[in-house]
Each structure stands twice: as C-alpha cells, then as structure tokens.
Amino acid sequence: MTRVDVHQHLWPEPLLDALARRRRPPRLVRRGDGWTLRMHGEADAPLDLSDHDPDLRLRAMDARGIDHALVALSVPLGIEALPADEAAPLLAAYHAGVAQLPARFGAWAAVGLAEPDPGALRELLDRGFVGACIAAEALSGPDGFAALAPVLALLERRGAPLFVHPGPSPRTLETASEHGAPGWWPAMTRYVASMNAAWHAFAVAGRPAHPQLRVCFAMLAGLAPLQRERLVARGGRPVADPLTFVDTSSYGARAVDAAIRELGVDALVHGTDLPVVEAPDLGLGLAVRVALHERNPARLLEAQVAEVAA
Fold first, then answer.
1. What is the pLDDT of residue 269?
2. Is the dihedral of CA 261, 134, 39, 179 positive or negative?
3. Which residues contact 183 (CB under 8 A, 6 or more apart)?
4. What is d(CA 77, CA 173) in angstroms, rounded to the nearest whole number?
5. Given a cut of 50, is residue 166 above it in pLDDT?
6. CB-based contacts of 6, cutoff 8 Å, min separation 6
7. Quick one: residue 192, left, alpha or beta (phi over 0 = left, psi -120 to 50 = alpha)?
8. Which residue would you say has higher pLDDT here, 57 or 307?
9. Which stretches within 189-309 are classed as H helix?
C-alpha cells in the first residue's frame, strides 16, 4: 500500500518569485546571500530555499519511507486572508506551481477568505487538487462555518476533504503581534488556541451542517480531543465520527498515544509539517504505523483513492 504524508509545505518557484516582488508582508526580503521571510505578527525568519527543492524533498521522503505527500500553502503566511486583489496573484502562483510538481506530490487547494469562491475551488478540484486547506482562525466559531458554507458544501458534494491548518482570517491577520517573543511563541499559543477553537466550532456548527464532509485537523487539533472530560463537564458534546481525522504533525509518541486512547487509531493520519519540523519516530508499533501511513489516509481521501483505482 502507498505510505502517505498528508501535511507538507513546498513552495514552488512561481510563489517564491511572487513573494519576492511584494513590498508588504507576507514577503521575501533579500539579505546578503540569503532570504528572510517577513509575515504579519511574527518575527522575521531566514528561509532556506533548499527546503523547497522538489528533488531534495523526494530524497527526504525516501529516507522516511514516504511514497506520496500532500503539500499545502503555509497558512500562517496569511496569503488567503489578504484582500482578494492581493491574494489572487499569490494563490494563482501557488496553484500553478504545485500542479507542476512530480507525481509523488498531491496538493491541497487554497481558498481566498476575503471572497470565498466555490467556483474557483471547483476548478481546482477538477484539476486534481485533493481538497481544500482553510485557516483555523476562519473556522473558530459558528459564524466562520456559516461564512464558508458554500465552499464546505462543495467539498462535501465532491467527497473532497477539508484540511484545517493554523492560520489567520481576514479579521485577525493584522491584529496578532508576538514581537519580542521567542520564535516558537505563535506555534505554542495562537496556533494551539485556534486549532482548539476550530475543533469545538466544528462540533457545534460544522458537522451538523455538513454530515458527510471529511475533515482533517492538523497538529492533533491542538490537543482539543484530550479536553473531552472538561467539555462534557460543561455540557458540551465531543466530536466522534468516522469522517473526522487529526494529523500527527508537531507531536511525538506521548501526545499521539494519548490521542489514540481518546479517539481510536482510525482517527489519526500521518502528517509531518515538513520542512517546518522534523517528524519523530513514534515507536508505537507496526499496526499504528500502518494505520497512520496507509489505511487512514485512504479513508480520508476515499473519493480520490476510488478514482485512482477505477
């Protein structure tokens, strides 16, 4: 069976070129012999272009025993949250670039959040994108699911999954500020909080409105599933259905084991977040490895797998 990583980031040359031409965040700034990434609300960070070299990434996948990877636009960049006229050329550059990647890469479509366009997403699905990646802060409450209902309904009709990833909405893009904080601060605060909120908002508003939508939450949904006892004590109902998944990105054996105990192994899929972090060897045994890498991704991507098999 094919071993799948559902969560990688690989910026194609058209997107890198477009970011280098910008004068406002998100942008790439030339610094000596290298590049610096400048984003809203986060400290400047060096960018190693080799991290986004498809050939080098394939070698890294081979070393990790990965046959196929799904790449997503890195949502914390905030591209999807920009005004529509600013977002459009960057989104077009991303979609055009990843469509030209080697066959071992699939891709999540990106959705402009200022003016969500189901027609544009339909065209991308027709071109082979596996589903849509949407920022958690855009889905952090019932109003977010209502605003994106036409996009989510399209995914549901097509059997294409939703991938919820940390990142800003148009409303929150320029409000967050971690200047003076260490580089890891957003990943441990805003990212976790937004994933937690999106998980619970999905239980309240997303799943009732879209009963057949497949959805995968990055980074174990910020460990939101482990809050079940507190949720029940406050009168809430936990998410528990065979169409809801979480990926393992950013976490190791202790957190993944806890998530398996809470959700069951069939709810977890393998996601690494390469090249942002290195994925550890979980050491949880062959059965878990097969479920996360092979069986569960096939369930998440059921429509696409069926199409390939046909």
1. 97
2. negative
3. 43, 45
4. 9
5. yes
6. 70, 163, 216, 247, 269, 270, 271, 297, 300
7. alpha
8. 57
9. 190-201, 207-209, 228-233, 253-263, 286-290, 296-300, 302-309
